[in-house]
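Blinded run. Sample ID left blank on purpose so nobody reads anything into the name before looking at the predicted structure. Input follows.
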Amino acid sequence: QVQLVESGGGLVQAGGSLGLSCAASGRGFSSYPMGWFRQAPGQEREFVAAINWSGSNTYYADSVKGRFTISRDNAKNTVYLQMNSLKPEDTAVYYCAADHRAFKLPLRASYEYDYWGQGTQVTVSP
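Blinded prediction complete.
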């Protein structure tokens, strides 16, 4: 079992930056693929970024490619999402998620992930 807690959300002006963290507790984090998703009001939850267990492979949604960076520190049981050049359309609740299938390449579908954090709000003003 893995518990995930996101932090770092907030209010920022368009063009600004925010860094999100997701701290994991429980066993197995260092072997799990991890993902970031987001959900805006009235919208479906959508894939943002994912990273494999070692951090050597990363994947991004087209809408954030070149602006967001996912990374992880297995010694600290933490995954990060650095968000630059933020746009109002990035406004959403951001969730981190873990896939319990150790050493698997990360996937983009939310149903592939077993553990979820409670989410952190990111609001980008025009």
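Unblinding after everyone has recorded impressions. The radius of gyration is 13 Å.
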